[in-house]
Design goal:
Alpha-Beta Plaits, 10 helices, alpha+beta, Ribosomal Protein S5, domain 2, eight-stranded mixed beta sheet, about 300 residues, about 25% strand
Length: about 300
Protein backbone atom coordinates (compact mmCIF):
# COMPACT_ATOMS: atom_id res chain seq x y z
CA UNK A 1 0.00 0.00 0.00
CA UNK A 2 1.48 3.34 -1.09
CA UNK A 3 1.60 6.22 1.39
CA UNK A 4 2.88 9.74 0.73
CA UNK A 5 3.90 12.40 3.25
CA UNK A 6 4.72 16.04 2.52
CA UNK A 7 6.42 18.80 4.52
CA UNK A 8 7.00 22.48 3.79
CA UNK A 9 10.34 24.20 3.48
CA UNK A 10 11.41 27.04 5.78
CA UNK A 11 12.79 30.55 5.97
CA UNK A 12 13.68 32.45 9.15
CA UNK A 13 13.12 36.20 8.97
CA UNK A 14 14.03 37.17 12.54
CA UNK A 15 15.78 35.51 15.45
CA UNK A 16 18.60 33.78 13.61
CA UNK A 17 21.02 32.23 16.13
CA UNK A 18 19.35 33.84 19.17
CA UNK A 19 16.27 31.63 18.73
CA UNK A 20 18.48 28.95 20.29
CA UNK A 21 18.47 30.96 23.53
CA UNK A 22 14.75 31.66 23.66
CA UNK A 23 14.35 34.79 21.55
CA UNK A 24 11.02 35.02 19.71
CA UNK A 25 11.51 34.38 16.00
CA UNK A 26 9.30 35.11 13.00
CA UNK A 27 9.45 32.32 10.45
CA UNK A 28 7.75 31.25 7.23
CA UNK A 29 6.82 27.94 5.65
CA UNK A 30 7.54 28.02 1.93
CA UNK A 31 5.54 26.90 -1.08
CA UNK A 32 8.48 24.59 -1.80
CA UNK A 33 8.92 21.40 0.19
CA UNK A 34 9.64 17.68 0.00
CA UNK A 35 7.52 14.56 -0.33
CA UNK A 36 8.25 11.04 0.89
CA UNK A 37 6.49 8.04 -0.63
CA UNK A 38 6.55 4.57 0.96
CA UNK A 39 5.56 1.47 -1.00
CA UNK A 40 6.28 -2.24 -1.12
CA UNK A 41 9.73 -3.09 -2.43
CA UNK A 42 11.15 -5.96 -4.47
CA UNK A 43 13.57 -7.38 -1.91
CA UNK A 44 13.90 -7.59 1.83
CA UNK A 45 15.29 -4.38 3.24
CA UNK A 46 14.86 -0.69 2.54
CA UNK A 47 15.62 0.69 -0.91
CA UNK A 48 15.92 4.49 -0.81
CA UNK A 49 15.89 6.91 -3.73
CA UNK A 50 15.99 10.73 -3.61
CA UNK A 51 14.95 12.94 -6.52
CA UNK A 52 15.71 16.54 -7.46
CA UNK A 53 12.94 18.88 -8.71
CA UNK A 54 13.57 17.83 -12.32
CA UNK A 55 12.96 14.19 -11.41
CA UNK A 56 16.60 13.13 -11.68
CA UNK A 57 17.97 10.89 -8.97
CA UNK A 58 20.69 12.49 -6.82
CA UNK A 59 20.97 9.80 -4.16
CA UNK A 60 20.30 6.07 -3.82
CA UNK A 61 21.11 3.54 -1.14
CA UNK A 62 20.00 0.21 0.28
CA UNK A 63 19.65 -0.43 4.01
CA UNK A 64 19.25 -3.79 5.70
CA UNK A 65 18.57 -4.80 9.30
CA UNK A 66 21.47 -5.94 11.45
CA UNK A 67 20.79 -6.62 15.15
CA UNK A 68 17.72 -4.42 15.09
CA UNK A 69 19.38 -1.45 13.38
CA UNK A 70 19.39 -0.32 9.78
CA UNK A 71 22.78 -0.45 8.11
CA UNK A 72 23.58 1.00 4.65
CA UNK A 73 25.53 -0.99 2.11
CA UNK A 74 27.90 1.88 1.42
CA UNK A 75 29.91 4.06 3.75
CA UNK A 76 29.16 7.42 2.12
CA UNK A 77 28.18 10.21 4.57
CA UNK A 78 24.65 10.68 3.15
CA UNK A 79 23.82 6.99 3.66
CA UNK A 80 25.25 7.07 7.17
CA UNK A 81 23.26 10.19 8.07
CA UNK A 82 20.05 8.71 6.69
CA UNK A 83 20.61 5.50 8.66
CA UNK A 84 21.18 7.48 11.86
CA UNK A 85 17.87 9.36 11.41
CA UNK A 86 15.94 6.18 10.68
CA UNK A 87 17.52 4.39 13.64
CA UNK A 88 16.64 7.32 15.89
CA UNK A 89 13.05 6.97 14.66
CA UNK A 90 13.14 3.21 15.32
CA UNK A 91 14.24 3.86 18.90
CA UNK A 92 11.12 5.99 19.37
CA UNK A 93 8.79 3.69 17.42
CA UNK A 94 10.34 0.20 16.93
CA UNK A 95 7.40 -1.13 14.93
CA UNK A 96 7.26 1.33 12.07
CA UNK A 97 9.69 -0.73 9.94
CA UNK A 98 9.46 -4.51 10.37
CA UNK A 99 12.86 -6.28 10.26
CA UNK A 100 11.76 -8.57 7.42
CA UNK A 101 9.87 -5.95 5.39
CA UNK A 102 10.54 -5.10 1.76
CA UNK A 103 10.16 -1.34 1.37
CA UNK A 104 10.89 1.22 -1.30
CA UNK A 105 11.07 4.89 -0.25
CA UNK A 106 11.23 7.76 -2.73
CA UNK A 107 11.74 11.37 -1.68
CA UNK A 108 11.22 14.27 -4.08
CA UNK A 109 12.27 17.88 -3.55
CA UNK A 110 10.38 20.88 -4.94
CA UNK A 111 13.48 23.06 -4.58
CA UNK A 112 17.17 22.90 -5.43
CA UNK A 113 19.26 21.40 -2.65
CA UNK A 114 21.57 24.44 -2.55
CA UNK A 115 18.63 26.74 -1.76
CA UNK A 116 18.79 25.90 1.93
CA UNK A 117 15.01 25.67 2.35
CA UNK A 118 15.15 22.60 4.55
CA UNK A 119 16.04 19.38 2.76
CA UNK A 120 16.97 17.91 6.17
CA UNK A 121 14.07 19.33 8.21
CA UNK A 122 11.46 18.26 5.65
CA UNK A 123 13.03 14.80 5.61
CA UNK A 124 12.88 14.53 9.41
CA UNK A 125 9.28 15.77 9.49
CA UNK A 126 8.27 13.25 6.81
CA UNK A 127 10.02 10.35 8.55
CA UNK A 128 8.34 11.36 11.82
CA UNK A 129 4.93 11.37 10.09
CA UNK A 130 5.65 7.92 8.64
CA UNK A 131 6.72 6.57 12.03
CA UNK A 132 3.94 8.47 13.87
CA UNK A 133 6.35 10.06 16.33
CA UNK A 134 7.07 13.58 17.56
CA UNK A 135 9.18 15.32 14.87
CA UNK A 136 10.75 17.68 17.41
CA UNK A 137 11.94 14.73 19.46
CA UNK A 138 13.30 13.05 16.33
CA UNK A 139 15.18 16.25 15.48
CA UNK A 140 16.59 16.42 19.01
CA UNK A 141 17.73 12.79 18.79
CA UNK A 142 19.36 13.24 15.37
CA UNK A 143 20.44 16.62 13.99
CA UNK A 144 19.62 18.94 16.88
CA UNK A 145 18.90 22.65 16.39
CA UNK A 146 16.25 25.16 17.38
CA UNK A 147 13.37 23.25 15.76
CA UNK A 148 11.84 26.25 13.99
CA UNK A 149 12.39 24.44 10.69
CA UNK A 150 10.28 21.52 11.94
CA UNK A 151 7.54 23.98 12.91
CA UNK A 152 7.71 25.38 9.37
CA UNK A 153 7.45 21.86 7.93
CA UNK A 154 4.17 21.44 9.81
CA UNK A 155 2.75 24.96 9.31
CA UNK A 156 0.72 26.52 6.53
CA UNK A 157 1.15 30.18 7.49
CA UNK A 158 3.80 32.47 9.02
CA UNK A 159 4.33 31.87 12.72
CA UNK A 160 6.08 33.14 15.86
CA UNK A 161 8.39 30.55 17.38
CA UNK A 162 9.94 30.24 20.83
CA UNK A 163 12.21 27.56 22.23
CA UNK A 164 12.40 27.55 26.01
CA UNK A 165 12.28 23.82 26.69
CA UNK A 166 12.32 20.48 24.93
CA UNK A 167 8.83 21.19 23.58
CA UNK A 168 8.89 24.48 21.65
CA UNK A 169 5.88 26.71 21.15
CA UNK A 170 4.71 28.29 17.92
CA UNK A 171 1.55 29.98 16.77
CA UNK A 172 0.29 31.16 13.37
CA UNK A 173 0.23 34.91 12.79
CA UNK A 174 -1.26 37.31 10.27
CA UNK A 175 1.04 39.68 8.41
CA UNK A 176 -0.63 43.03 7.63
CA UNK A 177 1.99 43.83 5.01
CA UNK A 178 0.32 45.54 2.07
CA UNK A 179 3.81 46.05 0.61
CA UNK A 180 4.49 42.35 -0.08
CA UNK A 181 4.80 43.16 -3.79
CA UNK A 182 7.97 45.10 -2.87
CA UNK A 183 9.62 42.14 -1.14
CA UNK A 184 11.66 39.49 -2.90
CA UNK A 185 14.21 36.81 -2.14
CA UNK A 186 17.66 36.57 -3.72
CA UNK A 187 19.77 33.41 -3.67
CA UNK A 188 23.45 34.11 -2.97
CA UNK A 189 24.68 31.26 -5.23
CA UNK A 190 26.06 29.28 -2.31
CA UNK A 191 24.74 27.08 0.48
CA UNK A 192 25.64 28.09 4.01
CA UNK A 193 26.69 25.57 6.65
CA UNK A 194 24.23 26.36 9.44
CA UNK A 195 26.07 24.12 11.91
CA UNK A 196 29.24 26.17 11.44
CA UNK A 197 27.24 29.34 12.07
CA UNK A 198 25.81 27.88 15.26
CA UNK A 199 29.29 26.90 16.47
CA UNK A 200 30.42 30.49 15.93
CA UNK A 201 27.37 31.81 17.77
CA UNK A 202 27.98 29.51 20.75
CA UNK A 203 31.27 31.30 21.35
CA UNK A 204 29.52 34.67 21.56
CA UNK A 205 28.32 36.36 24.71
CA UNK A 206 24.67 37.36 24.40
CA UNK A 207 23.19 39.75 26.93
CA UNK A 208 19.54 39.17 27.94
CA UNK A 209 18.60 42.63 26.63
CA UNK A 210 19.77 41.58 23.16
CA UNK A 211 17.34 38.66 23.22
CA UNK A 212 14.56 40.99 24.35
CA UNK A 213 15.32 43.43 21.54
CA UNK A 214 15.10 40.69 18.90
CA UNK A 215 11.86 39.37 20.40
CA UNK A 216 10.47 42.91 20.40
CA UNK A 217 11.33 43.34 16.70
CA UNK A 218 9.66 40.02 15.85
CA UNK A 219 6.45 41.15 17.55
CA UNK A 220 6.55 44.67 16.13
CA UNK A 221 6.70 43.27 12.60
CA UNK A 222 3.19 41.92 13.15
CA UNK A 223 1.99 45.51 13.60
CA UNK A 224 3.93 46.93 10.68
CA UNK A 225 1.82 48.71 8.04
CA UNK A 226 4.39 50.70 6.08
CA UNK A 227 7.44 49.60 4.11
CA UNK A 228 9.61 52.27 5.77
CA UNK A 229 8.77 50.95 9.26
CA UNK A 230 9.41 47.39 8.05
CA UNK A 231 12.82 48.36 6.67
CA UNK A 232 13.77 50.19 9.88
CA UNK A 233 12.98 47.11 11.97
CA UNK A 234 14.95 44.78 9.70
CA UNK A 235 17.96 47.10 9.69
CA UNK A 236 17.89 47.33 13.48
CA UNK A 237 17.75 43.53 13.62
CA UNK A 238 20.75 43.21 11.27
CA UNK A 239 22.76 45.58 13.45
CA UNK A 240 22.04 43.61 16.63
CA UNK A 241 22.92 40.21 15.13
CA UNK A 242 26.05 41.68 13.53
CA UNK A 243 27.18 42.89 16.93
CA UNK A 244 26.49 39.51 18.55
CA UNK A 245 28.24 37.28 16.01
CA UNK A 246 30.93 39.83 15.09
CA UNK A 247 30.30 39.63 11.34
CA UNK A 248 29.40 42.44 8.95
CA UNK A 249 25.85 42.56 7.65
CA UNK A 250 25.22 41.17 4.18
CA UNK A 251 24.61 44.69 2.90
CA UNK A 252 27.91 45.94 4.29
CA UNK A 253 29.82 42.99 2.85
CA UNK A 254 28.17 42.61 -0.57
CA UNK A 255 25.62 45.27 -1.43
CA UNK A 256 26.83 48.57 -0.03
CA UNK A 257 25.49 50.55 -3.01
CA UNK A 258 22.02 48.97 -3.00
CA UNK A 259 19.57 51.78 -2.17
CA UNK A 260 17.09 49.68 -0.16
CA UNK A 261 17.11 47.16 2.68
CA UNK A 262 18.77 43.73 2.50
CA UNK A 263 18.28 41.17 5.27
CA UNK A 264 20.10 37.89 5.94
CA UNK A 265 17.90 34.86 6.54
CA UNK A 266 19.04 32.08 8.85
CA UNK A 267 22.79 31.39 8.91
CA UNK A 268 24.70 34.41 7.62
CA UNK A 269 26.75 34.13 4.46
CA UNK A 270 24.66 32.02 2.13
CA UNK A 271 21.31 30.73 0.93
CA UNK A 272 18.63 33.42 0.50
CA UNK A 273 18.40 37.03 1.54
CA UNK A 274 15.29 39.21 1.63
CA UNK A 275 15.44 42.52 -0.27
CA UNK A 276 13.01 45.39 -0.55
CA UNK A 277 12.41 47.21 -3.81
CA UNK A 278 10.57 47.29 -7.08
CA UNK A 279 10.90 44.96 -10.04
CA UNK A 280 13.37 47.46 -11.53
CA UNK A 281 15.54 47.14 -8.41
CA UNK A 282 15.90 43.43 -9.05
CA UNK A 283 18.11 44.23 -12.04
CA UNK A 284 20.80 45.34 -9.54
CA UNK A 285 21.19 41.76 -8.30
CA UNK A 286 21.04 40.20 -11.76
CA UNK A 287 23.89 42.44 -12.91
CA UNK A 288 25.94 41.09 -10.01
CA UNK A 289 25.29 37.50 -11.10
CA UNK A 290 22.47 36.61 -8.71
CA UNK A 291 19.92 35.17 -11.08
CA UNK A 292 17.59 33.32 -8.70
CA UNK A 293 15.09 35.94 -7.54
CA UNK A 294 11.69 34.91 -6.17
CA UNK A 295 8.86 37.32 -5.21
CA UNK A 296 7.66 37.09 -1.62
CA UNK A 297 4.18 35.88 -2.58
CA UNK A 298 5.61 33.10 -4.76
CA UNK A 299 7.90 31.83 -1.99
CA UNK A 300 5.81 32.07 1.19
CA UNK A 301 2.69 30.10 2.06
Amino acid sequence: MERTFYSNGKLLLTGEYVVLDGATALAFPTRYGQSLTVETGDEQGLHWSSLDPDGSQWFETFLSFDNGRLQPKGSDPVSQTLASILNAALELQPQFIAPHASIRVTTALDFRRDWGLGSSSTLIANIAAWAQIDPFLLLENSFGGSGYDIAAALSNSPFLYERFAAKPTYRPVHLPWEFKAQLFFVHLNQKQDSKAGIRRYEKASVAPQMLRKISDISNKLLLCYSLSDFEALLEAHETIISEIIQLPTVKASRFTDYPNTVKSLGAWGGDFILATGTENDQAYFRKKGYTTLIPFTEMIL
